[in-house]
Design goal:
54% helix; five-stranded antiparallel beta sheet; Beta-Lactamase; 14 helices; Helix Hairpins; 4 domains; alpha+beta; rod-shaped; five-stranded mixed beta sheet
Length: 543
């Protein structure tokens, strides 16, 4: 999530401490180029103007022309080097500064030497050396500029074209070169530090924004940002899943009329900021409204919470309490139950018992075993561990599961079939919990829904972007009298069942953030249980 730090370069080979950001360096170099272009153009145009004839010595006019023309051509060539850099930034910057010092010294000589005052123009490339190059190189160019000025002075003095009174001025100009180079280097160094701090702060702000965006996008809760006209501004990835939609439309009205009605009702009565709705995938969600005032406009945040998440937490709390209760009484119940079962076994071995009495001892054994199974199921509920979720390849896993089921239970060979009808073949689930859920569903299908002419089908398909496992049988289905209590504990239509199988399966599904539901087949006899599993991409941050 972090952006790379801005690249820097060290333009001076003699100074390792001075570095300048690449983008800023080329920008400054281009600015210095345009200054050189304007200056060289002015100096060349002076040759053709009347002013040039007045200020340039007549005998040095040809010298001035060739010098200014060469300076202008070198400047033009410099632009092509900037656009398509053949050499490095450091080489170009050093060449620009050095050629300016040389050509401006020669032009100053054509104007009459240091007495013309053009020596001040050399201060600018000297300062540019401190900004563009910095370090010891800045002092080097200041020293070169001073040497060139003194050399011009010495040459003019030898030709007797100079007054010795200007010697102190040359010294002051040389000192000015060094002072300006030093000041420009300090300024560039301070600017560089400011740029680095600004880049670091910008990087931190960007990283925080990306982190916040990642957290919001991966929350279990759905978040929708809308304006006064109910136009959606932003939403996170959990919203389509919670609302049962493949994607969210641009307007709140197109999502759900009930949601729109609740939003408009909240605008009129702000105290009613909470409502419960049923989504398109039959999921109960809690909706909370809140205002987000900004400087120019007021936005509104709609928070969607899956009720099953709260139910899961409440269920885990109940199971924890149930675990403490059952752990304390299981021993007390099992002791007398074991005594009853053992006494029934001994009584059944008595040779003088009649057939009717043996039937009574058999009832004692069956009911004792049923009571013990109920205790085992309740203890299992209390010991429901936290899921250890991992990514499962459902196609291979279902094939292996069916082979294991058939191998461990004789006579199942012709009773099950596997059907794959989904492109979503991976899920995030606890393998042990998934095995237990399918064991319960397959056992119920064999017990209540198996027919001789049709096999029980374990089908893998997809629903609302989630991989789903359907266990389909063609029996009579579940009676209407227990339909509304299907997943409640101790609800069963069998005299031998405990009524905890579907309850345990539902609980294990919710712990793994999956959805277990019951459906009937359309246009034919039969029913199926559907287990929709979460994918690895839909793993959310639990807040």
């Amino acid at each position: 999530m972090h952006k790379p730090a801005p690249q820097t370069l060290s333009p001076c080979p003699f100074s390792k401490g001075y570095k300048i950001p690449v983008r800023q360096a080329w920008f400054l170099l281009k600015g210095f180029y345009f200054y050189r272009l304007i200056l060289s153009s002015i100096l060349l145009s002076l040759y053709y103007s009347r002013l040039g004839a007045l200020v340039i010595e007549a005998k040095l006019m040809p010298f001035y022309f060739y010098t200014s023309l060469t300076y202008f051509l070198c400047t033009l060539i410099g632009w092509s080097l900037i656009l398509k850099p053949i050499t490095s930034y450091a080489s170009q910057a050093q060449a620009f500064v050095f050629t300016d010092i040389v050509f401006l010294t020669l032009i100053m000589h054509a104007f009459g030497g240091i007495s013309s005052g053009l020596g001040a123009l050399i201060l600018i490339p000297t300062a540019a050396g401190g900004i563009l190059i910095g370090g010891r190189c800045a002092m080097l160019f200041a020293a070169l500029a001073s040497l060139f000025v003194f050399a011009e002075q010495a040459y003019s003095f030898r030709l007797s074209d100079i007054n010795s009174n200007y010697a102190p001025y040359a010294g002051m100009l040389g000192a000015g070169f060094f002072m300006l180079a030093l000041l420009s280097y300090i300024l560039a160094k301070r600017t560089e530090q400011t740029e680095v701090i600004s880049s670091q702060q910008q990087e931190t702000i960007t990283s925080l924004e990306e982190l916040n965006q990642y957290i919001i996008q991966n929350m279990q809760s759905g978040i929708i940002i809308t304006d006064q006209a109910q136009n959606l501004s932003r939403h996170n990835m959990a919203c389509p899943h919670l609302l049962g939609l493949s994607h969210l439309p641009d307007n709140l009205t197109d999502i759900s009329p009930k949601l729109t009605e609740a939003f408009e009702q909240w605008l009129k009565y702000p105290n009613k900021d909470f409502v419960s709705l049923i989504s398109a995938n039959k999921t109960q969600i809690h909706v909370h409204f809140s205002a987000l005032p900004t400087q120019h406009e007021t936005f509104f945040m709609i928070t969607l919470e899956d009720v099953s998440v709260y139910k899961q937490r409440v269920q885990q709390s109940k199971l924890a309490s149930l675990g403490k209760l059952t752990a304390s009484i299981a021993h007390e119940i099992r002791n007398p139950l074991g005594a009853i079962s053992h006494a029934g076994q001994l009584l059944a071995e008595c040779p003088t018992l009649s057939t009717q009495d043996l039937r009574l001892t058999e009832i004692i054994q069956v009911q004792a075993r049923r009571m013990n199974a109920i205790i085992e199921d309740v203890l299992q509920l209390s010991r429901s561990p936290q899921p250890t979720q991992e990514t499962i390849d459902l196609v291979n896993w279902l094939s292996n599961y069916l082979e294991t089921l058939i191998r461990s239970n004789d006579g199942y060979q012709n009773q099950f079939e596997l059907s794959i009808d989904s492109k979503l073949n991976t899920a995030l689930f606890d393998i042990g919990h998934l095995t237990q859920i399918l064991n319960n569903l397959c056992a119920n299908a064999l017990k209540y829904g198996y027919t001789l002419d049709k096999k029980i089908c374990i089908q893998l398909n997809e629903d609302l972007g989630l991989p789903c496992i359907n266990v389909i049988d063609f029996g009579n289905g579940i009676p209407d009298k227990i339909m509304h209590h299907l997943f409640e504990p101790f609800v069963t239509s069998s005299h031998s069942g405990t009524g905890l199988g579907l309850y345990i399966s539902k609980d294990l599904a919710e712990i793994n953030q999956a959805r277990l539901s019951y459906h009937t087949l359309e246009n034919q006899q039969g029913c199926f249980f559907r287990l929709c599993l979460p994918t690895a991409k839909q793993k959310k941050i639990k807040l």
